[in-house]
């Protein structure tokens, strides 16, 4: 699974980084567009330039464009005793399922994000019983964003892809 969080800049996961917080609900499509392309109160730079296809400028580069946060599946590790690939859910997930996943930030080396920060699980979702799942999330995701991502996992059939 991969998620592109246009509302959260990659800089949010860097030390001291912040995720922009909307202060009002947009009433129209024009307002939504202006929220994406105009500066937030805490930042003098727009989140992204609607006319730009490449979001490659580094945060604070002065070009006024920040890359969206990319989330990807955490790579599993080989478990010698079980002879399979496993993810460590730290006891929170108890039933094996193709729906189980952990998402971490996918960042370019140019962002100077530590390896430890890149390995931190931002969202994990997994099965704990028949038709019962658990979801854990952390900053910079909101509960709404995390829940929406988890719901989207029910719309796919990994074994058929």
From TrEMBL:
This is Tubby-like F-box protein. Residues 17-62 are annotated as: Disordered. It holds the Pfam family Tub. It comes from Stephania cephalantha. Residues 1-156 form the Tubby C-terminal domain. Belongs to the TUB family. SUPFAM superfamilies: Tubby C-terminal domain-like. InterPro entries: Tubby-like_C, Tubby_C, Tubby_C_CS. PROSITE patterns: TUB_1, TUB_2.
